[in-house]
What does this fold into?
Amino acid sequence: MARIGADAQVGESPGRKLKETNQEICIGYTGFGSYLPSIEVTNHDLEKLVDTTDEWIVRRTGISTRRILGTDESILDMAVGAARAAMEDAGVTANDIDDIRVGVNTWLRFPSLASQVQRVLGCTHASASDVSAGCAGFIYAVEEAYNKIYVNRVRDHRKTTALVLGVDGLSHITDWSDRGTCVLLGDGAGAVVMQEVESNGILATHTHADGRHGCLLYSDPVIGSQLRSESEKTFEQEPNSPRTYLHMDGPKTFAIAVKTMSRDVEAVIEKYNARSGASLGVDDVAFVFPHQANLRIIEAVAARLGMPLERVYTDGVKKYGNTSTASIPIGYDEMRGRGNGAPGFEVDVAFGAGFASGAVLRRT
It folds into this structure.
């Protein structure tokens, strides 16, 4: 897949210009990486755990296999593995990284995962923060990194290199007795390096959330009150708190996901058109990287947009299941070796708990 910059119109690259130099600011991906655990769980493995079959899982979800963390692997291991691969691909070192953004939902502790990635990689002068936006966390993290790179360049006349990751270990919060969720989920990490580049790239971003639907897709609280008596103000320790699990109302989530992802693709294109004066449409998009939640969702979104499936990334969900924030950057790393058609416009779109969603319009 070609390297990606920012703010290109149809037929030209207007960019956002620095007033003092008339220079275009182009921000894009210069490196890609991913990490997938070695343990593979097949549909036949799940037949031994819950009342299901390979045929049922494939028909309902499109998923055949998924990867899960081993007993000697961690979410941090995945994040660092994907980050190192992306940095090597971009030709940057730890000293070059100024900002680290990590889309993650399953770290469930502090200090932040981003700060621990910083520690292991040795990016000693980088800022670091986690982004929690459900399965749309990578989209949100890209938007935040883009904005920081842009502001630093315009306000402080300083170039910035950002490391952006999507990583989740959903197997840690999976109820392996619930066939409605355990067949869907997998673990993985993906990463990109974002820098100023010569042309093309991120043309527009769009993010949105609708917290009214929080009861449809959620995990149990990690901590609760330790106050035992309000009058006496006494407290009780709970050293062995119950494990937190993911819960989902599948049918209701499915319907909202299809509608929202379709809307977000159109919204990010409209945002670009409004700013640039272009007249880009869905038909002009060469390829879409949707969050790999469920093949039926992807197919429904493509149908709603009038886009043939050969222009949509679908292999991730088939091989790795729903890897949450990691699914889009894993797709980048997978597709670049094969090519995805002629250079052109691409859209990333994701939807997750919260219901947080978003899309990125890029030009390759």
The CA atoms of residues 178 and 230 lie 37 Å apart. The radius of gyration is 21 Å.
